[in-house]
Each structure stands twice: as structure tokens, then as C-alpha cells.
Specification:
Helix content is 44%, strand content 16%. It has 15 helices and twelve strands. Strands 2-1-3-4 form a four-stranded parallel β-sheet, with helices on both faces. A four-stranded parallel β-sheet has the order 6-5-7-8. The protein folds into three domains: 5-86 and 264-287, Rossmann fold (3-Layer(aba) Sandwich); 90-171 and 288-303, 3-Layer(aba) Sandwich (Rossmann fold), CATH 3.40.50.10800; 175-255, NadA-like (Rossmann fold, 3-Layer(aba) Sandwich). Helix 3 runs parallel beside helix 4 (63-72) and helix 4 (63-72) packs across helix 15 (287-303). The protein is α/β, with parallel strands linked by helices and 306 residues long. It is globular and about 55 Å long. It binds iron/sulfur cluster. The site of iron/sulfur cluster has 14 residues, from helix 9.
Length: 306
Amino acid sequence: MVVSPETLQYIQELKEKHNAVIVAHNYQHPNIQDIADLMGDSLALATEAMKLDADVIIFCGVNFMAETAKILSPDKKVIHPEPNSRCPMAAMITPEALRQMKAKHPDAIVVSYVNTTADVKAETDICCTSGNAVKVIQSVPEKKIIFTPDKNLGMYIQRFVPDKEIICWEGYCTTHQNSVTLESLKALKEQHPDAEVIVHPECTPEVIDFADYVFSTHGMLEHAKSSKVSKFIMGTEKEMCYRLSQDVPEKTFIPVPEAICPNMKKITMDKVIASLETLTPELILADDIMQKAKIPLERMVNIGRG
Ligand code: SF4
């Protein structure tokens, strides 16, 4: 749905009134992407939101992303327009369960995907994103890694670090695991034999083996810009194709139609405007959790992209 000029003007006035910025993940509704001041994957949002000259961040993404923005920008007010926009994969691990696993493997270091809640990060040694996971694991001297929470990403990383033992948590992304299937990609490839198949590392190993390339969302964007190919089947959340078509309009991006993250889609235009009007609901985290979770996040940020 196209955002009307009146709505855009109203949003602009509210942003100026509160010195606010709208930050949005690549999987948000297209109309939310259209009003965002900053778009990106989880690493870009984590690092760039810190640098924004703003008092208020309206964060359009799931809960752990808004938490990360707050932890890295503690002096800013972070507003999460829909607190029930929560990542099911992040909910597949708790700090208590992670503590039990650490007790079983006292010689292992804990690497957590950034798709974890702040209290799980507080039990983590270093965070990573899908874009820098291999680089992060190569950077640590330990040979034994507890990797949480995405088993598919953990198994994918293992291919690049055969000298290390990665113990994967049994979590997964419900969208990439259940909706980006081998059958759906094969059917699209039959319809578009000239298209390259690109998938996200949250997909299952059989999907990864079928793909031409495996990239984080940032990597997908970079590849689409530089590739000589003009048509791509995108094995990731459907809205990534909107982002790609905005940034690389001369190329064609074919989504897996059923690959929708319903949790990302809980943030709507009405909720964003209500948040800009009232500066609620504010995301609040306990100070001790913020302090502890900041350490693995800063280690991740210092390592940068893979
Ligand atoms: S796409 Fe997957 S990992 Fe991302 S927020 Fe949705 S469920 Fe979580």
C-alpha cells in the first residue's frame, strides 16, 4: 500500500517534534520500509542505529532487534511499536537452559546468533550474525563451541571450520525451516530455469545444498548489485524481494510466496504512527542484563562483517 503524501508529512512532523528516527528490518511490510530512515539486516541496524543523531528510535523489527538497539544505544529511548512482535527462534532458548548446557561443556565457548533475547546474550561469550558467523568462530581460540539458537546456521558454519566442534542448540527459524523448502525452490527453478537460486543460511542443509549461493540479507543485496545475472529466486523472507527491487530495480527477484515471517508483520503503519504520537511502548531492560549483554554484542561489532 502506497503511503499518502499527507501521512508522510504527518510522520515527518512527528519525527522532527521528537527528534526521532524510524529503523526497519528488511523483512518489514513494504510501506514500513518506505518510511524508514535506516534499513538493513540485524548487524547494520545494530551498528548504524548507535551512530544516529536522534533521541528516539522507533524500531520496526522483532523484539531481540529492538533490545540490541537499546543495549548499544542506552541513552536513546527505544520504542517498539508492537511488543508482541517476537522471534520464535529466539524464544527456543532460555538463560537457564543455556546455563545447563554450559555446565555440561565447561571447556566450550558460547557463540550466540544475534537472534537471541538480551538475557540469553548475557550468558553468551560472543554474538554473531549470519553475515559474520564464520569470521566470529574463526576469531576465537577455543576448539569447542556451543552455538545458539539456530541449528541450521550452526551446521552451515561447521562446513567452514572443520577443525572446530560446533555443538548446535536445537532451534530454528520457523519461516526459513518450514516455508523455504526444497520442493518450493525446485518448482520455482522449473518455472525460471535462467534464475540463480540464493538462500539464507537459516535454511535447512538440503535447501542450502540445492542453492547456487548462500548469503545473509546484506550479502544478498551486495551479490544482486554486482552479479551479471539478472534474475534471482530468493530463498528467504518474502519482503527481502521488495527491498532488493527498490535497490536494484533493473533486476528480477522471485520470492517463495509462502515465506512470510508473521511476527515481523505485526508492526503496522497505524502502530508506528501511534508510537510516534505517544512515544510508547518504550522498551525497558534491566541495567544488569544490559551491561552483561553489551559485552558479547560489542565483541561482535568489533569483528565486523565476514
Ligand atoms: S524470519 Fe525467522 S529468525 Fe527472523 S524474526 Fe522471523 S522467525 Fe525470527
